[in-house]
Amino acid sequence: MRYFILFISILTFFSVNSQVNHSKWDALLKAHVSKSGIVDYKGFKADQSKLTAYLNELAANAPSSSWSKNETMAYWINAYNAYTVQLTVKNYPLKSIMDLKYSGKSAWDDKWIKIGTETLSLNDIEHIKLRKKYNDARIHFAVNCASFSCPVLLNKAYTADNLSTQLDNQARLFINDPKRNQISSSSVKVSQIFEWYKDDFTVGGKSVIDYLNRYSKTKIKPGSKITYLSYNWNLNE
User: Fold this and answer.
1) DSSP characters over 75-113
2) Of the candidates 132, 140, 158, which has an alpha carbon nearest to the alpha carbon of residue 22?
3) pTM to 2 decimal places
4) CB of 220 within 8 A of CB of 212?
5) Inter-residue contact 181 to 191 (CB < 8 Å)
6) What is the pLDDT of residues 89-126, one digit of tens each?
7) Any residues with CB less than 8 A from the CB of 206 and at least 6 apart, and which?
8) Are 160 and 207 in contact (CB under 8 A)?
9) Percent of residues in the chain assigned helix, strand, coil, to nearest 5
């Protein structure tokens, strides 16, 4: 009996603490997202059963305290993106995610995502599970809001082993993307993301320009005036 109890305890431990394998999501992204971030929502819709299977894995395997920082961050970034695709697919065809309202709430505020014992909104994932916990502005370039002006949806899953490199690459890609930011040495027209979340980009007394210069191919002169481009909320397809 003692050995049986021990065996059950070991099985329970590994069940509770098992990390999610994001290969299902990775395959879907490679199949339905171009290198430039254009999303084939019709393709995702045709593969709805595969997307649902991945989301079921997420729901049954919420991060635990035994997970590393990178494992947990990768989990929540993938979750945000996968649930955003799911929401879009369920309402497709759709012009803009902004058109979705649930009892007066936006698509980001509606609590419909069941993970472990919690019921979350997309905003809960972005702002509580990610931004509040990790204080890493690169998160803004990884989560995708299904809209053209958002940083592009990476066509592969985020993983713990490659997370920092993936986040840096996304930051560099977004900041140097002339469709989303227009940067010269003395003129800066950038995404409203840098206005809405200015505090995230100015930690430690740094300026938005300081942050941009970490990744921009064109170095911006200190004191250059920043203006913000209008956000295009049309679907990123």
Assistant:
1) HHHHHHHHHHHHHHHHT-S-SBGGG-EETTEETTT---E
2) 158
3) 0.92
4) yes
5) yes
6) 999 999 999 999 998 899 999 999 999 999 999 999 99
7) none
8) no
9) 50, 10, 40
Per DSSP bridges, beta strands 118-120 and 113-115 are antiparallel
The total of other beta-carbon atoms located within 10 Å of residue 29's CB is 21
134: tokens are 């990790």
- Using left for φ > 0, alpha for ψ between -120 and 50, and beta otherwise, residue 103 falls in left
Token pair, residue 51, equals 């997307």
- Pick the range with the lowest mean pLDDT from 13-17, 59-63, 118-122, 133-137: 13-17
- Amino acid letter at 101? K
Per-residue pLDDT for 9 more than 80? no
How do residues 64-81 score in pLDDT, each as one tens digit?
999 999 999 999 999 999
CA dihedral sign of residues 135, 66, 169, 28: negative
**Residue written as tokens 């990178």?**
70
